[in-house]
Each structure stands twice: as C-alpha cells, then as structure tokens.
Amino acid sequence: MKKEKKLMPDNSDQQTAMNRQGWPKNSLPPPNATKSKSESFTLNRTVNLYPLSNYTFGTKEPLFEKDPSVPARFQRMRDEFEKLGMRRSVEGVLLVHEHGLPHVLLLQLGTTFFKLPGGELNAGEDEVEGMKRHLTETLGRQDGVANEWIVEDTLGNWWRPNFEPPQYPYVPPHITKPKEHKKLFLVQLPEKALFAVPKNYKLVAAPLFELYDNSQGYGPIISSLPQALCRSEMEESYDG
C-alpha cells in the first residue's frame, strides 16, 4: 500500500519529511510498544462515598472570621503581602451521598453565603498539614478524640491576581505577582464520624447537580466542583 511504502527504507540520499518523522528506523521500539493493548494507562482514582446518615453533627463555640468586613480583609491582605508575599490558602472538599447522589459538605453562614472548610496557611506551613489543621479547627470534635483526615488529592488551583474578590483557575498573563494562591484538596471521609460544627455556621450537604454551573448561588469555585470531580470514580457504600 502507498502508506506502507513510505515507511520502508529509502535507498536514495534524499529523504522526505515523512521519512524523517516518527520513531527512528532500525532502532529499539518505543518503551510501550510491547504493552498489551488491553492494558489501561488511565489513572482512575476511586473516591468512597458513605451515606450522610453515617455522620453525627454536634456543635461547638462560634468560629469567627479574622476580618470584620470584606474591605478589612483585603486591607490585611495588602499589608501582609508587603511583608510575607503571596497568601497561601487551602480548602477541603468532603463528599457524602444522599438518595444515591454525591453531595458536597458546605459551611453556610446566613442565608446566602456558602464556603468550603479551610483557610490561610501560616508562613512555611505544609499544605496538607495546614489542611488538616483547618479541618480540625472547623469541624473537629471536642471530646478529645482526634478526627481522621485523609487528604487524597489536589482538585484545583485558584489564583487571586489583585486585592479584589475575583479569583481564576489560572494566572492571567499580565499578572507577575498574584496576591493569593488557593489549593483545593479532596478529603476522604471515614465510614463514620462525629463532627462539631461552630454555632454560627450550618453544615449543609449540597448535591453536585445543584452546584453545577451555579456560580450565582455558590461562587465560581464551588460551582466548578462537579467538573473537578468528574475525573474520579465515585463508589457509594451502604450499611448492611
């Protein structure tokens, strides 16, 4: 066939562009050439989801924000940027299932504000350790028994280019010094657990279909979670 002839050795001194492309002739095959065609090279992470009813929710003392207002928060960010550089923060994505559907646990403040558990990292603090610290401070039980936080994977990276609310899943090309880097982590919950929720928050379980493309209700980060999670295989476990 014509296509096969182009792959045969050419005795002439001049080679065509097609002859020069591809894996070199008379050399070892590519490293994966002997792999079975049935072997999958896709890394398919499985996330275990347990029923919402498996978890018990108590209460604890209120957990207040560091800043009394949004302008105060950005002023503190500006002051700290001059001394410490870019702020690093982390947020955790905790999943359960209800009525056969994946749900994300969100902290609700008031009637319209929702957030993921997390917060700012200390200077030099490890990201995973900082994520566990924030989970303990926000949802950790108060009876002296430590919660088991398993930080499984990174779900996304978001950047704040200026001292303003907008954040993006990339660094805009004209920005050389982002003001904040926020990393989202997937946290694997144990089969059963007790959580203590600050009194000024409600812990709600929001289904993925409600979050999808709903930045008006949940903001750009939370509303993008269905896309971030779709690369994982979700395995629902039931009692019994």
From TrEMBL:
**What positions does the domain Nudix hydrolase occupy?**
86-211
What InterPro entries would the database entry show?
Cleav_polyA_spec_factor_su5, NUDIX_hydrolase-like_dom_sf, NUDIX_hydrolase_dom
The UniProt entry's GO biological process terms, in alphabetical order, are: mRNA 3'-end processing
PROSITE patterns in UniProt? NUDIX
Which GO-annotated molecular functions does the record name?
Answer: mRNA binding
Give the UniProt entry's GO cellular component terms: cytoplasm; mRNA cleavage factor complex
| Record key words, sorted | Cytoplasm, mRNA processing, Nucleus, RNA-binding
Keyword Cell membrane present in the record's keywords: the answer is no
Q: Which domain of life is it from?
A: Eukaryota
User: Where does this chain mainly localize?
Assistant: nucleus
Region Disordered, residue ranges: 1-40
Q: Which family does it belong to?
A: Belongs to the Nudix hydrolase family. CPSF5 subfamily.
The name on file for this protein is: Cleavage and polyadenylation specificity factor subunit 5
Provide the species name.
Artemia franciscana
Q: Which classification does the entry list for the species? A: Eukaryota, Metazoa, Ecdysozoa, Arthropoda, Crustacea
